[in-house]
Amino acid sequence: VLTHKAIFSAAEEGRALSRPWIKNPSVVTASGIAVDLTFFGRYPAANYMTDGTPLAAQALRRSTHGGFDHGENKGADWQKLLSGLTILSTTSAAAPMCGMVMDYLLYYPLVPMEDIQEMDNTITLPRYADGKGVRIMLVEQFPYVGGVTCRVTYTNELGVAGRMSPIMTINTQTALGTIATSAPATAGCPGTFVPLQDNDGGVRSVESIEFFTADAGNLAIVLVRPLASFGTYETTCPSEWNYDDDLFDLPPIIIDDAYLSAVVTPTGSLSGAIIDAQIRTKWVAA
Amino acid sequence: MTIPTSLDGRLSAISAGKTFTTKLSKQFNPTAAAVANEWHTLFRGGGYPSADAIFDTGTTLQMQSLCDQIASAGNLYHGGIIGAAGDDYKGLEVAMANSAAATVCPAWLQLVDVLAWTRVTAIATTTAQTIINSNTFTASSSSGLLLTFANDWQSFTKVRFTTTTTLPTGLSLNTDYWLVRVSATTARVATSLANAIAGTVIAFTDAGTGTHTLTMRLPRYSDGAGVQAMIFNPSSTALGAGTPGLSLDYTNSASVAARATPTSPSLPIGKTAATNSHILYTGATGAGKFGPFMPLQGADAGIQSVQSVRNNATYVSGQYALALVKPLGEAIPLQVLGQGVPWRFTGLPRVYDGAAIYGILKSGVATPTNSLVEVDLSFLWA
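^ Those are the sequences you sent over. The predicted structure of the assembly is below.
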């Protein structure tokens, strides 16, 4: 049974780890439009999610792809927790800024933005296999014009196929890593995640995406499991987030071999910004 | 039922995977810019959950039950039914809210569980209009006990039965049941929400004798404790001109009937030409402005049922909706554009199985159409 005592004992007993991550976006972003930091260097290296055959699912794992380092796998006897995050940036567009650490599970690369594109689901979710709590992001891989509409068809967490998102509008932010459905005040732009059909609690796989008007560019369709929220407040001091001591949040469980990364929503351009952070993990008896 | 009030209790729930994290991502006021300090529902805006298509539908003045199983209701999935009998305790743990849309902030966001609603289309009527909370019915056999009545009741409506003589076999007085809708005038009956969802219904034995009546109960917080009322424009068409005083005749959570909206200092007064999603009597200036919820009489702690609703002057056109809601936790302040606001809710507000969770929002400044508000939410249960 997980207890407060067990969490605090973990650090004393050496079962705690702190690891840095630094991201340096290289494109012009805009206020209120979410950006996937996975697509930018420095540490860990950028992952453009172009590996593999277009439209064919590719699983993401720490052991093969990297992501924010959270330490070695702990095995079935232990439960690894995301216990905290510290983040700082001296770039004004990065404060205030909010974001979310997520377990990136799988992506479909290089999706053309025209007609109906059918996905290949030979490879399935590597974690959260039933899809409960898993959400869909559309991430810009190569610049588009934007303003077109699309709809995603998916299998939900109960295994029901043919579930459909509402028709969404793609934003006009032509920058790598932009979340294509994110815009602060554009009708039909629903935010960071693709809205699910009524009563659905997650996504097991994406079947297809239909574009009602053709556009240039490519998207990656990414399946993620949200873990923890964070934010920045000042350019003059770091922001501290504790997830395990009742100050703010729950300590999310990190499944072995999880590929961690984050999406942020800035208040201006992050081009050239250094976003410097540490994540902290602990592991306790399962 | 275990209420995980201790931190260790909550950690145990998390460790056992009894947690669900999601993001509510809604666009504000889809058809017109708001005015500073008005409250608006986020029901009809785009985003996730998708826009509702329900609050401007249905028979006028018929109170309708709402739960998260109703397609087109556009409420938030919060982890599903957690106990076969619905007897585990699910709570709303933490949130992180923000808006990066220009001129939304400062704002306040309140989460609500919408329990029931009705719409009022006869807005030129200035006398009290009676709310339909019950129907007489007859019983017959069709793949189980089938009730036939006058009005169209939503699936999963919680009801109780009364009769002048003897109820059909399988139904008892002073007992909760749930309807499983078959058609606009018929439904079968289940003994629990879980059974209703599963389609497990009461078998037909006989039709009973005498005149039977079904009466709708609030699907959650059935005694009315903490239940509030709000009146809003549910339609994309703005209301016409008019500034009526708005009032309710209701039964409070202590089952005392004939309670009334206070007239002092003023009845809540609806805004002229109120736009889509506007909670009619909210705003910064003018008489009869209140927060999002209708004032209650005296020391009343909630509304069990509403008997009538009145607008004491006409609206020229349009319709309004009356919803009974349970606020979930505190309102979350959004102070600075783009700044995430972490929020730990006091006392782990309970989220019942079937809860229909939505947001309502007050912007401190004029808000452009389709402004996006995003809220990360974590639930846990034990």
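The mean pLDDT of chain B is 92. Chain B is about 5% helix and 35% strand.

Shout if you want it in another format.
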